[in-house]
Every structure is written in structure tokens, then in C-alpha cells.
Amino acid sequence: MSSSSSHTEGLVQTVGILTIKLIKGTKLKNADLIGQSDPQVIFTNGRQVAKSKVIDDTCNPDFKGENLSLCIESKSIPIKMHVVDIDTFSEDVLGDAELSISGLKSGADLDVRDIPLNTEGSITIALSYTSLVEEKVDEELDKLRSGQVCVDCGNKKIEWASVSLGAWLCIACSGVHRSLGTDISKVRSVDLDVWGDEQKKGMLASNDFNSVFEGGIPSSVQKITPSSSRDEREKYIKQKYVELAFADKNLKATKLEELVNNARG
Ligand SMILES: [Zn+2]
């Protein structure tokens, strides 16, 4: 690990506990030739896994309110739900889905949801969330964000940031950054994640950032805007951060890291 990136890598921290009360499955896929499916629901959050009991021989399982829980590191990352048919000799997939937990409030009433699977049928669950950190607007971070724009498309609505680059991002551009992998850009939510002091210190004014990363943009290249398509964004953002095609040539920097160091001064 280089010294420049270690500044911005906070320790992984559990910010809350998600409790999933499993209610029922409805019209799940029948994967068995004799009888019906034997469904089990598996929730994963990064490396954490929570599995329900297996309910035998039914496509409409009653989970009888079984409670499962997961530690949450970031409410901005959806939970994956995987439903399988457990047989003696095999495990067939009955379907998958994702649960967004970003809107859950600590200590609120159960959030009952009927989650459709990507195959057929649905799983009914009730979610509750207990925060282990004080959930309030980080005023320091909010102040840093004020007046900045998305460094890629110029959108004034900033909900995300790349903490490895020190760059403010809109939701659409943050999705492209995430797809590039954490070697290129580490994305965090401004409102939902807990930030370390070093991460806050590493953030740059969007103009300063772009004077380095777009300082040498060819006149033939058109900058993306908040209404650009996903394809246009992907192309532009890859050129900007993977190929470093728009960087200020006077800096003679050839690596992403060198440009970040330049921008941070
Ligand atoms: Zn943007």
C-alpha cells in the first residue's frame, strides 16, 4: 500500500445492525421433479452471510417470523438475497434480489416488504435497523461539499465522493466510478457513510481537482453534463481516470496516483 492512499483508508466500522424477519415466500419456482421446492433464503452483505432454516416441500413457505441479523458497514450498499432449493444431492437457485437499506431509520417501525425475485415469486420480509453511531448530518462534511459540483458532469447535486481521488460526485457518475474498481476510485456516500477525518481532509475543491485531471483536455472532447447517458459517462470517465487522457501534460505525471498527489499539493 502506498503512503498516499493509506491516508484515505478508514478502518471498516460497523455502523448498525439490520434485523430481517422472514415472513413467507409466495409462488416460488418449483425446482423439484417429485414434490415441491425446499426453499432456504440466504442474505449476504460483503463477506457476511445469514441463512434461514430450510422449509421442506413447498413453493409457498411460511418462515414463521424467523429473525436473521447482519452487521452493516454502509447503508449505501444493498443487501443481496439469494433463494435456493436444498436437495439431498444438489442446490438449485430459485431466484435473487437486492434490498436497498439506505432509507431505513434507526428504531423505526418494521419496514414490511414483498421482494420480487428475478425468476418468479416473491419473499416477504420485515426489516428493522438499529444504528450504532449517531445518525446526523456531518456538518463538517456538508460544509466541504457546499458550492462544489460533480467533477465529471458538473451536476450541483452531490451525494457521493471518491475518497481515494478526493473528488465530489453525483449519483450517476459515482456508479461509473464504482464499476472501475477500487484501484481506480473508492466511492463513499456523503450522507450515509461515516467518514474519517483523513478522508475529509483529502477532499478537494472541484475546480482544483479538474485543473489537474482536465487541465489538458483536447478541444475536440466534449465534457459530459448531468443529462449525459450512461454510455457517454462511462466513456468519458474511463478516458479521464484510466487512460488519464485529459490530464495536464505539464505535470508530466503518468500514473493516477501521481496526479492525485499533484492535485492534493
Ligand atoms: Zn456527475
* Oligomer designation: single chain
- The parts where pLDDT drops under 50 for at least 5 residues are 1-10
The molecules bound to the chains, other than polymers, are: zinc ion
Written as H for each helix and E for each strand, in order along the chain, the element string is HEEEEEEEEHEEHEHHHH
Domain tally: 2
Tell me the number of strands. Answer: 11
Largest sheet: 4 strands, antiparallel
Radius of gyration: 22 Å
What does this protein look like?
Helix content is 20%, strand content 28%. The chain is an alpha+beta fold and 265 residues long. The protein has a four-stranded antiparallel sheet, with no helix packed on it. It has a four-stranded antiparallel sheet with strand order 3-2-5-6, with no helix packed on it. It has a three-stranded antiparallel sheet with strand order 10-9-11, with helices on one face. A hairpin with a 2-residue loop joins strand 2 and strand 3. Helix 5 packs across helix 7. The longest helix is centred in the C-terminal third of the chain and has 12 residues. The N terminus is likely disordered. The protein binds zinc ion. The site of zinc ion has 8 residues, from helix 3. It comes from Ditylum brightwellii.
